[in-house]
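INFO worker-7 received task bundle
INFO bundle size: 2
INFO processing item 0
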Amino acid sequence: MTEISSYLEKLALNHNINIVWTDKLAPETPPGCSLHYRSIVMNLNWHRPAEISFQLAHEISHILNGDETDICFYHATFTGKHSVEYKANTGAVKLMVPF
């Protein structure tokens, strides 16, 4: 586990967010989160491993932002400054600034 992933896991723990790491998903299956359960499922088989830390920060941001839908999935495309995904990406960048 990288230093940043460790930092993000501690941050999640401090905010009562559960992270489930699994290697049982297909490489194209994105991570996701449930706001209701304050839980994130992360895919250890993701086809671009270098993205995993950002994905984790992104999912944490969905929960910290209290986004409107209960289940959110990582989506890497730009969809406008007012979208839920844009806000989660911005939050992820802010979480990762120390690194």
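INFO item 0 finished
INFO processing item 1
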Amino acid sequence: MTRDQDKLRRLASTSPGLRSLRRPATTNCPEFDLAYTRTGPPSPRPVVVLPGGPGLASVLPYRRFRRRATARGLDVVMIEHRGIGLSRADTTGHDLPRAAITISAVIGDIAAVLEHENIDAAVLYGSSYGTYLACGFGIEHPHSVAGMILDSTVLSAHDHHAVRSHARSLLWDGQHPDTESSARLLRDLIAGGTHTKDDASDVARLTYEFGGPALLQRFLKQATSGKAQRTWAFVSNLGRSEIEDEVATRFWMEFGPVAGIAFTELNYAPPPDGGPFDPATQFISAAAKYPPFSKEPFDIPAHLSRFRWPTVIITGSRDLRTPRPIAERAHASIPGSILLGIDNGHSALDTHQLVALHVIERMAQNQSNRLTRPSDTQIIRQLAVRGSATRFLPHIISARLRLDTAWTAVRRVSRLSPFGRRAPGTRR
């Protein structure tokens, strides 16, 4: 264990409510200790929060979130996903084998923690990949579900069709007034050969999700005029660490150990169709190291009509990874569900935590119907953005664009002589 890893493990040991549960050995999995936290005062309706990924840890990344939840008197359980973070190794210190890390096994871990904590029924809050776990848990353990919150919904291993279609309609075809100009700029940029289709799609998606249509249009205009080279490189490199198993991300985001779930069970790398904004292209190189897609463990859409518990579905207006059409499909299928649209990108749990906590609070109090009232709508609109450091990304991109503009101007002036004429050897 490196010094940094030892430091992180000691830091985790000081996390309030940290507990562990010895999971017995099975055919595919050796005995290991499953880490989890339970914070806040015990209540009749505890909330189990399931982060996205797969690969995102629970204990360290969400310490601030749990402090905020405790301040609101919320009883919150978070389980460190088997195979990553504090649940990565068996009792001898060796990493769990890939065969042990499946969606069904993870759902079994959730059930085991509820039983260990004497929780008869809980509210399940899932974010992105966590929504698939929440729905799978509801299918296998319906009597243990008191309510469900689906934040950035994942329904199927075939969601990529809806993801492609939605992103292309907005940012390639420009079918919305807010993105018509940006779509034209993006097409021209790619047609001019300045940037590749996949690179430009990734930069446009990320900028739109975090910064909105106005920032995207400004960015693309500046890129078209050749004044955004450094900013483009910066944004293009963002997010790559999520699919790289680097030591620096240990206990936070560890995609490598659980990538089998992503590729073999959830089809994160389907065959690309050759068009822009194809989520498959982000995972092609990583997918080559793992078995191909086989079969997902559940047909979730076929079971949604049987979800009879209170359900709230949160969807961000700028979410291009789990876009609104998927949320609308879930809403149409789950009886009595509430569709809550917010001004946000992907995952309120990660990028707009005060909204997530407000919804959790309503559900924990068995008052989810209040979310449809104008008073709650106003409250949600006024909540400040709180979450991961990515909330600062729009400001960082804006600042970098200003620097790029200044740098371009300096370079231009440097080519001129003190008398205003171009220095010898410079190009026009």
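INFO item 1 finished
INFO post-check item 1: The chain is about 45% helix and 10% strand.
INFO post-check item 1: Residues 419-428 have pLDDT under 50 and may be disordered.
INFO worker-7 idle
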